[in-house]
Amino acid sequence: MRFRVPPWWVRRPVALVLLAALLGLALALLPLLVVGAALLSVVTPGRWRVLRLLGFVLAYLLLELGGLLAALGLWLASGCGWRARSPAFERAHYAVLRGVLVELVAVARLLFHLALDTDGVSWTPLDDGVPGSRNAMVVLARHAGPGDSLLLVETLMDRDHLRRPRIVLKDALQWDPLLDVLLHRLPAVFVAPGRDDVTERIAELARGLGEQDALLIFPEGANFSEGRRRRAIDRLLGKGMVSQAERAERMRHVLPPRTGGVAAALSAAPHADVVLVAHAGLEGLSTLGDLWDGLPMDSAVRLRWWFVPAQEVPRDPHGQEDWLYGHWAELDRWVSSRAQSG
Questions:
Q1: 2 domain-assigned
Q2: pLDDT, mean over the chain
Q3: Does residue 308 form part of some domain?
């Protein structure tokens, strides 16, 4: 039986109390924590691994608190939420989200030597010399590794792209108090596996996409692992989808895409261009043990973007599924080439 996320009036007080307790305890014991982390770093592999991790956790907690205080200020300024969904306050909430993500990625770059490099032609709409989209956009991204959704959202909102993301994400992320508050005031959908209304909610989110909007979907539905890949193939076979299972079998580094949510988004926003995103560099960091072994990373996360104009996206269900599987196979080949090149 799957654990369901409790309603907001239960989870938000619990999450806020935990955040306040952790931050208060960390600040009260900060000298001891720094000394202890430094001593542990001496006897553990890596360069100041524990101290870097402590610094990131503290920065994360402080950014959470700062973002929540900003959200509280916006709630009060909007008449205790009365005008919170007006265009002006929506822009303000996006500004808070962008500010927190920019700072969080900056801390990761500093502490973990995290570098984000685009491999290939960028689709940025701000450079007339580069093919790209000035139109509404549906972004279909690979899902592999910790924090890739936050990295992609930060990239979509950065000064080169200036997009307003509409995000489809797992319902468990509502336990993060800042994401819970901000994304319930912005266009976003928290989905739970097994719900019957997932495609309808994604379609509703896609309707009315404007030229600055980008709907972000992770068609795989979960971070990649070999176990999940095998289970996904078995699920396709169990549904009698033999052709799709055979194509998924040939893809070694990605999960087969779930087509329902993608089809719902593209049907609701036929005017939107499509961008597909693959990244390499976060693989193998799916468990706490993997994260411990992989930090500090001292490596680059490579990004590759494919731009598809709206008029080139198939509209019939069979053709659209074939198109999506074809692009996902191309993502797989790119990830494979990055793995072979180290």
A1: no
A2: 89
A3: yes
Residue 112 lies in a domain: yes
Assign 124 a pLDDT band (cuts: 50, 70, 90): low
pTM: 0.92
On whether the CB atoms of residues 124 and 160 are closer than 8 A, the answer is yes
Contact 284, 290 (CB under 8 A): yes
Q: Integer distance in angstroms from the first to the last C-alpha of the chain?
A: 40
Output 52 or 46, whichever has higher pLDDT. Answer: 52
Domain that holds residue 36: 10-340
The number of distinct structural domains making up the chain is 1
CA–CA dist 274, 135 (Å, integer) = 10
Separation CA 230–CA 249 (nearest Å): 8
pLDDT on residue 126: 53
User: C-alpha 333: how far from its chain's center?
Assistant: 22
Alpha helices by DSSP H, listed for the chain, are 8-28, 30-43, 49-77, 87-112, 148-157, 177-183, 198-206, 226-238, 242-250, 259-268, 288-294, 317-340
pLDDT in tens, 202-255: 999 999 999 899 999 999 988 888 999 999 999 999 999 999 999 999 999 999
Query: Does residue 73 form part of some domain?
Result: yes
Cβ atoms 301, 115 nearer than 8 A: yes
Going from the C-alpha of 124 to that of each of 7, 101, 208, the distances in angstroms are 38, 19, 22
Enter the tokens of residue 158.
């950065």
Cα–Cα distances in angstroms (integers) from residue 261 to residues 169, 204, 285, 336, in the given order:
12, 11, 26, 26
Q: Is pLDDT above 90 for 294?
A: no
Give the integer Cα–Cα distance in Å for 312 and 158: 27
Residues 269 and 215: their CA atoms lie apart, in Å, by: 10
Q: CA–CA separation, 99 vs 159, rounded Å?
A: 12
Higher per-residue pLDDT: 264 or 3: 264
Q: Residue 300 pLDDT more than 70?
A: yes
